[in-house]
Amino acid sequence: MAVLRNYKICDNAKECGGIAVCPTGALSWNEEKETIEIDNDKCISCGACESHCPIGALKVAYTEEEYKKINEEIENDPRTTKDLFVDRYGATPLSEFFIITEEELEKKLGESITLIEAYEEDTIECLIKSIPIKEITSNMPKDTKYFKMEASSLTKEKYNINILPSLLIFNNKKFKGKIEGYYNTDQKQELLDQINNIL
Ligand code: SF4
Description:
By secondary structure, the protein is of the alpha+beta class. The chain is built from nine helices and eleven strands. The chain has two domains: 2-79, Alpha-Beta Plaits (2-Layer Sandwich); 86-198, Glutaredoxin, CATH 3.40.30. The protein has helices at 17-21, 48-52, 64-76, 81-85, 105-108, 125-129, 133-137, 153-158, 188-198, and strands at 2-5, 27-30, 35-38, 58-61, 88-89, 99-100, 113-119, 131-132, 145-150, 166-171, 174-180.
């Protein structure tokens, strides 16, 4: 019937996974306007684009009612692309700014709190559901530092890490403790309480 694009969270890129799989050309890239275009007359509601959008910005409506409902959901969605694509605890890093190597770890530790997220390759699902770093550090001292570090077996052994991602917590250059495993947005308070207990 029709496909809808959540323009609030879609990064509107030529490389759109939906465009790549759409068999009818209902989804296309307009080079001149630099935007994704939808021609719903061509849409056969096959659903291919929906499953190829990693952030869930493409939704296929099969009935008029569904179309209205999805449209309303998009209009009421409080999220923006920024909310989805900031670096997040539990997700593969997006911004190189946060990435350090294991060799750099000691040098990066600050006088105040330093959080090191030891990670390994993960799914993009984490980018949508994991906790933005700014929310984890919002009540911490201004000079709190945060980095992401891909963990080899050496780091896992050194800090006795069994599950990744794992948040290594340092204060004044001293290792205070760690929190293992992935936390989603619903578990934010739990994660913050654990960090406070360690500090
Ligand atoms: S539902 Fe199928 S035909 Fe419609 S836009 Fe998506 S991929 Fe193209």
